[in-house]
Write a structure and sequence with these properties.
The complex is a heterodimer.
Chain A: H1 5-21, H2 24-37, E1 50-56, E2 65-71, E3 74-80, H3 93-96, H4 98-103, E4 112-114, E5 123-125, H5 128-144, E6 151-155, H6 161-173, E7 178-180, H7 184-196, E8 201-204, E9 211-214, H8 226-239, E10 242-246, H9 252-256, E11 259-261, H10 268-281, E12 290-291, H11 293-303, H12 306-313, H13 317-329, E13 333-336, H14 348-360, E14 370-373, H15 388-394, H16 417-424, E15 431-435, H17 439-442, H18 446-455, E16 458-461, H19 468-471, E17 475-476, E18 487-491, E19 498-503, H20 516-527, H21 529-533, H22 540-548, H23 551-558, E20 560-563, E21 573-574, E22 594-599, H24 613-617, E23 624-625, E24 628-633, H25 635-641, E25 648-653, E26 656-664, E27 672-676, E28 715-721
Parallel strand pairs in A: 6-7, 6-15, 9-10, 9-13, 10-11, 12-21, 15-16, 16-17, 22-27, 24-26
Antiparallel strand pairs in A: 1-2, 2-3, 4-5, 4-17, 8-14, 18-19, 19-20, 22-28, 23-24, 24-27, 25-26, 25-28
Helix pairs in contact in A: 5-20, 6-20, 7-14, 10-12, 10-13, 10-14, 16-18
Chain B: H1 2-7, E1 13-18, H2 27-35, E2 55-60, E3 70-75, H3 88-92, H4 119-123, E4 130-131, E5 158-159, H5 165-177, H6 191-195, E6 201-205, H7 212-217, E7 219-220, E8 226-227, E9 232-233, E10 245-248, H8 252-256
Parallel strand pairs in B: 1-10
Antiparallel strand pairs in B: 1-6, 2-3, 4-5, 7-8, 9-10
Classes of the chains: A alpha/beta, B alpha+beta.
């Protein structure tokens, strides 16, 4: 058969059309895609029996109840616990990410000792026996030389049995140097002591208030107990509650508020006093729960007339008057204090001014008001019988200077550790223990702190994670994470009542870690004598059960213990007459024309716990892009300096310098620039390290003249084209 | 067909998201990722290839300081019904990997059927669909938390929000075992709804007058499911995609941001059809 051109073309075209019209191409595409999807490395999660186990989250001070879904022995999802008095089913982004922390590769999987240079990351796995021996021999040596006071411990909290055991260990050992990491809690406790003359903290009945005046408190940015505050925010929407947010930047909290009052940063106290002055001058105050009013009143009226406060704060005079009227005339007004998440203590002046507003509004210990309450006092252990060595150590001054001289009012001053080690301290530190804290990332002027750490001869980290502070350590004694351990979780965090949650082991320990309480009891027993005597418990669980006494059964059954009927620690606010100077930002205006303020975001964990990959994934590309972090700047300020969106710039402050990108944001006061806290990690892994800038490297502590607490709310800065 | 519907009244699962309550905290995004085994990479700052079944957008009113306002808008798959189940994505899928369920109103996605042509991504006006450019890799140890309820996806397929369909299946099985004819409202809730700390999300059957979502949305079947609630709007409602995610806002500029209005058009105005 002869194939001519015509039949050849007919055959080819007909064949192509026929194939195309047949299911063959689709079938082949489908088959090839199925074949190429059958790779063995795509995981197939094993099935199994599903159970839910309840516990308490302790990743932040919020104290939410959680319900963990398990498939056989694997925890697969964390959910909020329905009906829990704090969060009633809600849960935050960090709490949801907990399993990435539990199973993630940033866990420290075994006790380890350093074998390379400090910070080099060369470690050797050792046994717990060897690890305990290294620790106790070191501590015993120092103590036998009469230098017990040269050991210091940093902890993220001082409430609950685990921090109490560490405190007790320090006391029995003979060191006065237990230091809690700084937060607004420091200022709050000091303000309660100063204004109420009592030991305690404030609690806010936010659910029942009908006018909220927040001085920069990140109501929906992680302030207080975050999920409780989210729920309150929605409740306020339903009840049409007026919420006023005083803040230089349009934060999420400001955006949720009824009214945003942009204020010059650092002048919140002046605004509060200006509002108080209007209330006083217009006779809109309730002096039923205040003392020392007449003297204070005269000073207030003389120093804070609206026409003077307005230019200082940048808030119009009529706005100040309206705020005062709105606040005073509301049935249940409530003023909140503590910037952002409350990570920086702040000044006593500011807290006192804001709490005075509450007192003048007559809301002290009232429904919808501010309460002065004590911590739950269930830890009733006999006093430590100190031996001679311990007693002489305890007589030494504290290394951070807290509690004496100009720092008499402060209990803990971690912000003074760096200056102490770098030459200003009363004696050299020989050993530093760090638990539940990551000061080498979280403290302002991080560089100085890291330099100080480099000079401390022996550092022990109890961290569960490979964080920046653990990287500087010589000995790692990793704690279980919260899902692997028993622990009492007393919740402060602005609650107007007492709540204690119980963390229970949801899964068995994943690695060769040990409960910090257990580590301390074991070490104390190994050291013998009066130290061992101070720890009469067989193990941590026994200690916890005995300490909680009758609450133990309730906690095991319900997971939470609530005391709503509590007696306030005091009823009267003493208004102090003498004014102290306000805290200024470091740096001079001519060299540094801008003001840099850090801000908190609920999507970025800014405490001891580093962000899980899930959280980093939710961070906007106007905060983090690749490795670059952004500063927010008003377009007006940016265009004057010639910056456009996304431009690279060098940000310089008196403390440091960083490469940043520009993000234009209309919601920030001109002349002010803002940067998110919680980025710029150097430790952990590639999912977190090297992303963005650690704003703490650009800011230094500024001591509050009243207490010595770090009250820095920002720093002067400049931007140059990179 | 009519006869069949009498016995099984079709459900229409949908959502109402109160933007007045939404705080932009991102808990819904992570609840979704954790529930549905969503993968992640070391760098997720390129949002074009960052897989987020539910993404929270930040809207601004574009007004200069100090009259600036922002609002967050969570965007799951809109589970468009179109006209008679012709969702934009379903109509274009050559592999029938995605389909509109007339029983639940849920737009499904079957990963092993998908061969990655991405027509659906081009067709979706909401950018709710994501392509797996790489095989998922979990850091060492993290595979332990993967849930057996949702199969991890592989390179080369499209994925998207399923309204946590596996939860519907579990709830349906349970209802059957309990001898109930329908799935109770509380028994089937999506992970984002459950997690939202602000209680901004309401989920349920839009066809069921007893469900809260129906009471909030008050859908008008005569006008393509348009809400009778003056605070409510849907995204790009005038495209006729007939989505089942309703947003609520008391702010006019937010409702206006839900569609591309011409300067003279009023917010919520339905365009006249062209002839």
């Amino acid at each position: 058969m002869k194939v001519d051109r015509r039949s050849f073309l007919s055959f080819v075209i007909g064949g192509a059309a026929g194939t195309a019209l047949s299911p063959l191409p689709w079938k082949l595409t489908d088959d090839s895609s199925i074949w190429s999807q059958m790779w063995p490395w795509t995981p197939v999660p094993p099935d199994g029996e599903v159970v839910y186990e309840d516990s308490t989250c302790s990743l932040c001070p919020g104290g939410c109840g959680i319900s963990v879904r398990k498939v056989d022995n694997r925890a697969v999802k964390i959910e909020g616990k329905k009906g829990h008095p704090v969060n009633d089913g809600g849960i935050c982004i960090l709490g949801l990410s907990g399993l990435q922390l539990l199973y993630g590769p940033t866990r420290i999987k075994s006790p380890m000792k350093r074998i390379g240079e400090r910070g080099e990351g060369k470690w050797q796995n050792i046994s717990w026996d060897e690890a305990t021996a290294i620790l106790t021999e070191k501590l015993t040596d120092i103590r036998d030389k009469g230098e017990a006071h040269t050991v210091a411990a940093i902890a993220g909290s001082d409430s609950g049995t685990v921090p109490a055991l560490l405190q007790r260990f320090m006391t029995a050992y003979g060191s006065p140097n237990f230091i809690r990491t700084p937060s607004h809690r420091d200022t709050d406790e000091l303000a309660v002591k100063t204004l109420f003359g009592a030991i305690g903290r404030t609690g806010f009945d936010v659910e029942n208030a009908d006018f909220i005046l927040s001085f920069g408190s990140g109501i929906v940015d992680g302030w207080g107990s975050p999920v409780r505050m989210f729920r309150a925010s929605s409740l306020w929407k339903e009840k049409n509650t007026t919420v006023v947010q005083v803040e230089p930047r349009l934060s999420n909290s400001a955006a949720k508020a009824t009214q945003w009052v942009p204020v010059n940063p650092g002048t919140e106290a002046d605004l509060a006093l200006g509002i108080a002055a209007v209330m006083v001058s217009q006779n809109m105050v309730d002096t039923g729960a205040v003392s020392g009013f007449s003297g204070w009143k005269n000073e207030l009226l003389a120093n804070y007339p609206t026409e003077k406060v307005s230019p200082i704060t940048g808030v119009n005079a009529d706005v100040i008057v309206e705020l005062a009227k709105g606040f005073a005339k509301a049935n249940r007004p409530l003023a909140l204090c503590g910037r952002g998440k409350g990570l920086v203590p702040g000044s006593l002046r500011e807290a006192a001014a804001i709490y005075a507003l509450n007192a003048l509004a007559g809301n002290i210990n009232q429904d919808g008001g501010m309460w002065a309450v004590s911590e739950a006092d269930y830890i009733q252990w006999p006093d430590v019988a100190t031996d001679k060595l311990a007693s002489s150590g305890l007589r030494q001054p504290r290394f951070d200077g807290a509690g004496a001289g100009q720092y008499a009012k402060a209990r803990y001053l971690l912000n003074r550790l760096a200056v102490g080690v770098n030459g200003d301290g009363p004696y050299p530190l020989q050993v530093l223990l760090v638990a539940g804290a990551n000061p080498c990332h979280d403290l302002p002027d991080t560089q100085s702190l890291q330099a100080a750490f480099a000079q401390i001869p022996f550092i022990v980290s109890f961290s569960s994670f490979k964080d920046e502070t653990a990287a500087m350590a010589d000995l790692l004694l990793p704690d279980h994470v919260y899902l692997e351990r028993y622990e009492d979780v007393p919740v402060g965090a602005g609650l107007a009542h007492q709540v204690i949650g119980l963390s229970k082991p949801v899964v068995s320990p994943q690695f060769n870690t040990r409960h910090l309480g257990e580590t301390l009891i074991t070490a104390a027993k190994a050291m013998g004598g009066s130290i061992a005597d101070a720890f009469p418990w067989d193990d941590y669980e026994t200690c916890l059960e005995k300490t909680l006494a009758e609450k133990w059964d309730v906690l095991m059954e319900e997971g939470v213990w609530v005391e709503t009927d509590i007696e306030p620690v005091a009823d009267t606010v003493r208004l102090a007459g003498k004014d102290v100077p306000s805290v200024q930002a470091e740096g001079d205006v001519n060299s540094f024309p801008l003001l840099l303020i850090p801000y908190d975001s609920i999507r970025l964990s800014s405490g001891y716990i580093g962000d899980a990959p899930f959280m980093i994934k939710t961070v906007a590309d106007t905060i983090l892009k690749g490795k670059d972090g952004f500063v927010e700047i008003n377009p007006q300020t940016a265009s004057a300096a010639g910056f456009s969106e996304g431009a690279l710039a060098t940000l310089t402050t008196p403390r440091g310098e960083a490469r940043v990108r520009i993000h234009l944001f209309e919601g920030i006061k001109p002349g002010v620039i803002a940067m998110a806290r919680g980025l710029g990690h150097t430790a952990y892994d590639g999912y977190l390290a090297g992303k963005g800038v650690n704003v703490n490297e650009l800011i230094g502590p500024v001591e509050d003249p009243s207490s010595g607490h770090d009250a820095a709310w920002g720093i002067r800065a400049k931007l140059a084209k990179a | 067909m009519k006869h069949e519907q009498k016995h099984n009244p079709p459900m229409k699962y949908g959502m109402a998201i109160d933007l007045d309550k939404c705080t932009g905290c991102g808990a819904c995004m992570v609840a979704c990722m954790a529930e549905n085994n969503v993968s992640f990479k070391k760098d997720e700052s390129n949002k074009l290839d960052s897989i987020t079944w539910l993404r929270v957008y930040k809207l601004t009113n574009d007004k200069p300081y100090p009259n600036t306002d922002i609002c967050y808008l969570p965007r799951p798959c809109q589970h468009c019904e179109g006209h008679g189940g012709h969702s934009p994505c379903v109509s274009v899928c050559p592999a029938t990997a995605t389909d509109y369920s007339r029983e639940t109103g849920i737009v499904s996605q079957i990963y092993t059927r998908c061969f990655g042509c991405r027509y659906c991504m081009a067709a979706c006006p909401y950018h709710a669909r994501y392509f797996n450019w790489w095989d998922p890799v979990w850091p060492d140890g993290m595979e332990k938390y993967l849930s057996p309820n949702v199969s991890p996806r592989m390179r080369g397929v499209v994925e998207k929000c399923s309204f946590c369909f596996h939860r519907y299946q579990l709830a349906k099985n349970k209802a059957y075992l309990d001898g109930e004819r329908t799935v109770p409202e509380a028994a089937y809730q999506t992970a984002c709804t459950q997690a939202c700390p602000a209680g901004a999300i309401v989920f349920g059957d839009l066809n069921n007058p007893n469900h809260q979502v129906h009471q909030v949305v008050k859908p008008d079947p005569k006008h393509g499911g348009k809400s009778k609630n003056p605070r409510a709007f849907r995204l790009l409602e005038r495209l006729g995609t007939n989505p089942k995610i309703y947003y609520l806002s008391s702010r006019e500029w937010v409702r206006r941001a839900g569609d591309n209005y011409l300067a003279h058009e009023k917010t919520g105005q339905v365009s006249k059809p062209h002839h």
